[in-house]
Write a structure and sequence with these properties.
The chain contains 11 helices and 14 strands. The protein is of the alpha/beta class. It has 2 domains: 199 residues, NAD(P)-binding Rossmann-like Domain (Rossmann fold, 3-Layer(aba) Sandwich); 114 residues, Alpha-Beta Complex (UDP-galactose 4-epimerase, domain 1). Helix 1 links the parallel strand 1 and strand 2. Helix 6 packs parallel to helix 8. The protein is globular. Bound molecules: serine (SER). Serine binds next to loops.
Length: 324
């Protein structure tokens, strides 16, 4: 790990699925006052109010600039994005947030000579022409969604800023992220979160993907670990920068439902594939993340049985407290 200490951090999109769990972990490491929650449309959870909270609209460069100046920010985790399904409903908004938002964040980081930026990418950068099994690190990137194409452009832009301006930008291609605190907002992999809430509340779930639709996934603790680890790794060891393949486990809706049934035997699942199926069909089955393993020591902790056990335990508790 590098000895550089990141002291003043801004997280954009901090009230989203990943941001709302990343902020508390960053605050645990760096102190509450050193991590700014950048909010936009979703109201922040109570826990996010334990340190500074500021409205940040990434499509408005000045709004990013102001917070960076006021808090003397040296590191940005740029988590604000419009995901795949929402991006197909409103491709114009996805362009604005994902393309111009990322450009604004990079420009502010360049102008203010920030130390480091995290800019996540996604398995959505791949498309139907990409090899589906054990998808290589460096391969065909011809996605069919607005989200995917904005993430490809984002990766290229981040790598350009590194080469051209020496801006230390890093990023991973997240698989579907499974979590139990904040719901994801409009992705194709969201079924793998919804299924748990429905299993607990109704003991049944109607899945919008086919039973055999395999996708790469990851549990939130692994997601947070990967995000923090790549940001702490030694720059000198990195051959890639903003485009690391990353995975933990791949499974189908049928496989996850069978795992849930081991804990809730009466659980039933039915399948009603909709438009989201074609997005899932264009994404890989499994991912080769050996570059991340070799360059910064990535290894996941949670497999499917461990994810299911922990998700059901946490959501059962929340259900008893009538939080879900
Ligand atoms: N979870 C995202 C989506 O489904 C993929 O990165 O859109």
């Amino acid at each position: 790990m590098s000895d550089i200490e990141m002291k003043k951090i801004l997280v954009t999109g901090a009230t989203g699925q990943i941001g709302s769990e990343l902020v508390p972990e960053l605050r645990r490491i760096h102190g509450n006052k050193n991590v700014v929650t950048g909010t936009h449309s979703r109201p922040p959870l109570e826990i996010l109010k334990e340190g500074p909270c500021e409205k940040v609209d990434v499509t408005d460069k000045e709004s990013v600039e102001k917070v960076v100046e006021n808090y003397d920010i040296d590191t940005i985790y740029h988590m604000a994005a419009i995901l795949s399904v929402k991006g197909e409903e409103n491709p114009w908004l996805a362009w604005e947030v994902n393309m111009n938002g990322t450009y604004n964040v990079l420009e502010v980081a360049r102008e203010k000579s920030l130390m480091r930026v995290f800019c996540p990418s996604s398995i959505a950068v791949f498309g139907p022409e990409t090899p589906m099994d054990n998808t290589p690190q460096d391969t065909v990137l011809r996605p069919t969604t607005m989200y995917g194409l904005s993430k490809v452009a984002g990766e290229l832009l981040c790598n350009y800023y590194f080469k051209k301006f020496d801006l230390d930008v890093r990023g991973v291609r997240y698989p579907g992220i499974i979590s139990n605190k904040t719901l994801p907002g409009g992705g194709t992999t969201d079924y793998a979160v919804e299924i748990f809430y429905e299993a607990i509340k109704k003991k049944k779930y109607t899945c919008f993907l086919r039973e055999d639709s395999i996708l790469p996934m990851m549990y939130m603790p692994d997601c947070i670990k990967s995000t923090i680890d790549i940001m702490r790794s030694d720059l000198i060891k990195l051959n890639h920068h903003a485009d690391f393949n990353l995975t933990a486990v791949s499974f189908t809706p049928k496989e996850i439902s069978e795992e849930i049934k081991k804990h809730i035997p009466e659980f039933t699942i039915t399948y009603k594939p909709d438009d989201r199926q074609s997005i899932a069909d264009s994404w890989p089955n499994t991912i080769d993340d050996s570059a991340a393993r070799e360059e910064w020591g990535w290894t996941p902790d949670y497999d499917l049985p461990a994810i299911v056990e922990d998700m059901l335990r946490v959501l059962e508790e929340r259900h008893k407290k009538e939080e879900i």
